[in-house]
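Worked example 2:
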Amino acid sequence: MDQEHTYDVVVVGAGPTGENLADRAHAAGLSVAVVESELVGGECSYWACMPSKALLRPHTALAEARRLPGAREAVGATLDAAAVLARRDDFAAHWKDDGQAEWVRGAGLDLVRGHGRLDGPRRVAVDTPDGSRVLLTARHAVAVCTGTRAALPDLPGLAAAGVWTSREATSAKEVPGRLAVVGGGVVAVEMATAWRALGSEVTLLVRGDGLLPRMEPFAGELVAEGLTATGVKISNRVSVSAVDRPAPAAPVTLTLDVGGELVADEVLFATGRAPRTDDLGLETVGLAPGDWLTVDDSCRVTGVDGDWLYAAGDVNHRALLTHQGKYQARIAGAVIGAVAQGEPLDPAPWGPHRATADVEAVPQVVFTDPEAASVGPTAKEAEEAGRRVHVVDYDLAQVAGSALYGDDYRGRARMVVDANSERLVGVTFVGPGVGELLHSATVAVAAQTPISRLWHAVPSYPTISEVWLRLLEAYRDR
């Protein structure tokens, strides 16, 4: 080893999760080293949340203007693709992490650049860019916050074809003439939306029966209608069996299992995520390389003696969302701080040391047109968990605020109520602008709010939020 250093806590991964966990541990008075092998700020900052939403927002703004007489006449027919891509580049900091690295140092954390691997209990060995090796020893805890990578299927010709994953889809410098998107989840529908708006001819190939299978069925149906209206071609119950690209700049040919072929200039495979644990040294602490890291509600990894190893964010597979990773980081940081100071952990389900929201109140927004937003379980998931539920649906177009928001507004809201406790457990909204409704639903679900109390949360008129009153009336009158 060229260098050896000891800290209270070593965090592997400097994405939003790792940054938050390190910050919370430091706030508890602990010394912290943060290890990063790529860009400080992680997937979200450069290849996911920020660049993808920067690509999507211009389309949404233009679509909203087109729904309003007077505004539609004032806007152009198409987006300026070069301007959209330039703004995307700004939000991705032009793929430079100087600002994020400065934040880490300014927060009192030590940044160690290089590839970190576990090297036995409480030890992380880092191979640095200059070829040296640094051994970091943790007095109290090591936290793995390495996130995920795109999972690609094992198909003939795929490895040599140079296909897009989510990284290429959010960072591409040119608009492809023809784009095939393989998948039906969030990445697939968002990127189909973005690149179609920028001028690509987009074909969406979906293995299942519809889009967004983890949300209420009507969410995928309404998003599919929105995509189709913009010209996206959607084929359900179709899988790709082979990929062929004879040269780097040549078109890609997809062989379909239903027969026939599809030719595109680029192909995005949005077919899931895999944990970044295959080269992490897990075998040195008795865990299997490449596996998701199983944790308890305090984000401590199970199956490792000594309660010193933590995993937060996507790598533990509890909720693959940036905001949930940051939430877990706050929990784990508080736990590490309490344990280091000899304080007892609070066992309460909604206390400071348990990530209960990962199970009960996970929010998510899909930034398509229309938007789809949900928190808590779907009606089916709640029933499969043994709950007796009442389901209330309401047509968002019937809310006064929706009609004012834009002509021909289409949308739907669903409220899932536990029939025994009469508490709200799940909410889904689909429609233009509903992403900004979601936090009110998240607060209500996380607070386990009784329906009787929600009557006293009066929505402002005339806003789309009035849907809350309509849902309560429908529940009362069911």
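The longest strand covers residues 133-144. The domain at 158-272 is CATH 3.50.50.60 (FAD/NAD(P)-binding domain).
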